[in-house]
Amino acid sequence: MSDVIEIIEQVREHYLQGYRQSYESFSQAHDKSAPEVLLQLQNRDKLPLAYQLYRIDMASGDSDSPKFSEFNHDSHLSFSPTQFTANSIEAELHPIAWNAVEFETNEFNFDSEVLSDWALKWLDQEEQADSDEFGIGCYIHSITFPELENGKVHFSIDFGTATIGSFYELISVLVELGVTEMKLHSHTLLEDQ
Q1: pLDDT tens across 76-119, in order?
Q2: Which domain holds residue 112?
Q3: Sign of dihedral through CA atoms 167, 172, 178, 181?
Q4: Which of 5, 17, 18, 36 is the most exposed place for a label (fewest CB within 10 A)?
């Protein structure tokens, strides 16, 4: 498991280095810029709150002429798929992008509030997390509502600037929900292989 933790930490750090550089360039080019602006998406209003919230990577301007920008790294860490056990979950880790981690698990009750409570904590509506010199905090940026397809539950998380602790906590949440099998990947990286 220590190898997997090291891989995930490297993936996170790789993403954050690029994100910080991108935001620094963005803030120099645009007045009134801010990172990680929290939005509530109206087209998701029938879902629980956690799945309605979305942190845009960076924004600028005023309410009359806002400009939004998303950051996607132009490079990703490459590694061979790795099997590991996390608590009681048999897992498989494929190459991932920290801002687009897709989960595929055995069936669980995704109407349970345990997963959405985890997401609300890390979306941090009150913005209580400490921020760095750029104003970047420690937030996930979004989570999709889980869907059941062919006996597997699928959902995606943009871990944004969240610490590695968010990932550890999520594993505990999934164990509590009865997840015993899990595959992690990023669809866009699978297409590149």
Answers
A1: 998 999 999 999 999 999 999 999 999 999 999 988 999 999 99
A2: 2-192
A3: positive
A4: 17
Q: Output 51 or 45, whichever has higher pLDDT.
A: 51
Residue 156's closest CA among 141, 169, 144, 148? 144
Q: In 10 A of CB 75, how many CB atoms?
A: 7
Q: What is the pLDDT of residue 8?
A: 95
Per residue, the 3-state secondary structure of the chain, as one string, reads CHHHHHHHHHHHHHHHHHHHHHHHHHHHHCCCCEEEEEEECHHHCCCCHHHCEEEEEEEECCCCCCEEECCCCCCCCCCCCEEEEECCEEEEECCCCCCCEEEEEECCCCCCHHHHHHHHHHHCCCCCCCCCCCCCCCCCCEECCCEEECCEEEEEEECCCCCHHHHHHHHHHHHHCCCCEEEEECHHHHHHC
- Assess whether pLDDT exceeds 50 at residue 193: no
Which pLDDT value is given to residue 82? 95
* Residue among 151, 140, 149 nearest 173 (CA): 140
If one counts the domains in the chain, the total is 1
